[in-house]
């Protein structure tokens, strides 16, 4: 079991203790030396030099597309895409002792407790390690300062990509999300078409429609209703927005404003990261 898994398992330990314990792991400099940084360095993509795979985090509001881009990058970089929302939904589907309590929290748009999410994440990391996985792209974690501190205490995150999309598109994108109940494919039936105004250019995001064999099997997440999405957006601003600042101060935050639909945004993201996706240039479909 790796240091990450062991220490994530030891979640009641304070982040200071974790930092001391994790001396064999590559951690960041102590907090105090960075809190006052005025101009953090611009983050950029570099392969880690210690032989491990990348350890990245995706931040961004519900509906922004973290899952889409994290999953594409994970295939490109050959690292697991670990979405804590998926871990929560898997746990809900087990119908185990926790699931009733969890579904109440998730369906109200609230965050589950830091301890619980860290338990789920450490189990996932441990299972991955047993299969020989190394590195990760985390999606949906950390979502609170406490989670960010714990993560910082146990490992060194290389890069944090903060996806941003205009507020008016986020709700529509959440409400348009669909999943195929058979193959698990993710689609979006929303068509975002925002006209240009004096301040901002037009934005067009076409729907991502399912193939005909999935069309009759589409389901909507129970927490993708208007009321719950608005609450999730509110909670993002309250609890998760400060996590952006946490990483900004450490010079790890790479801001990415989505310019439009997937093909356009993916190409721009790769340019920003200085990466090539040969597969993608062969198949333009998104
Ligand atoms: P979103 O579309 O809001 O980004 P996710 O699929 O990432 O949704 O998460 C679904 C739900 O799972 C969240 O609303 C929350 O209840 C729970 N969850 C996921 N990740 C975390 C986390 N890091 N901390 C607390 N709760 C989480």
From TrEMBL:
Native organism taxonomy: Eukaryota, Viridiplantae, Streptophyta, Embryophyta, Tracheophyta
Name of the protein: adenylate kinase
Keyword Ribonucleoprotein applies: no
InterPro entries the UniProt entry points to: Adenyl_kin_sub, Adenylat/UMP-CMP_kin, Adenylat_kinase_CS, P-loop_NTPase
Compositional bias segments (type: Low complexity): 19-33
Family: Belongs to the adenylate kinase family.
Keywords per UniProt: Kinase, Nucleotide-binding, Transferase
Entry annotated with the keyword Nucleus: no
PANTHER family: NUCLEOTIDE KINASE (PTHR23359)
Any one GO molecular function term: ATP binding
Catalytic activity of the protein: AMP + ATP = 2 ADP
Segments for region (Disordered): 19-48
Quaternary context: Monomer.
EC number of this enzyme: 2.7.4.3
CDD domains: ADK
């Amino acid at each position: 079991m790796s240091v990450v898994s062991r220490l994530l398992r030891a979640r009641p330990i304070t982040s200071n203790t974790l930092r001391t314990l994790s001396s064999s792991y590559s951690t960041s400099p102590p907090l105090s030396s960075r809190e006052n940084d005025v101009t953090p360095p611009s983050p950029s993509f570099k392969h880690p030099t210690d032989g491990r795979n990348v350890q990245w985090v995706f931040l961004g509001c519900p509906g922004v597309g973290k899952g889409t881009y994290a999953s594409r990058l994970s295939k490109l970089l050959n690292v697991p895409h670990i979405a804590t929302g998926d871990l929560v939904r898997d746990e809900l589907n087990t119908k185990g002792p926790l699931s009733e309590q969890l579904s109440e929290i998730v369906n109200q748009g609230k965050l589950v407790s830091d301890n619980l999410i860290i338990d789920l994440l450490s189990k996932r990391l441990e299972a991955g390690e047993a299969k020989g996985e190394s590195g990760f792209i985390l999606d949906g974690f950390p979502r609170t300062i406490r989670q960010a501190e714990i993560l910082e205490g146990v490992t060194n995150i290389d890069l944090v990509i903060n996806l941003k999309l205009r507020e008016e598109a986020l709700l529509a994108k959440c409400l348009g999300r669909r999943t195929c109940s058979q193959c698990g494919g993710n689609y979006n039936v929303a068509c975002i078409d925002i006209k240009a105004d004096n301040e901002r250019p037009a934005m067009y995001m076409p729907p991502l429609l399912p193939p005909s064999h999935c069309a009759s099997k589409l389901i909507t997440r129970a927490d993708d209703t208007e009321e719950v999405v608005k609450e999730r957006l509110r909670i993002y601003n309250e609890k998760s927005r400060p996590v952006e600042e946490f990483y900004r101060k450490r010079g790890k935050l790479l801001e990415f404003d989505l310019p439009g639909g997937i093909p356009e945004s993916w190409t721009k993201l790769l340019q920003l990261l200085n990466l090539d996706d040969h597969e993608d240039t062969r198949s333009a479909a998104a």
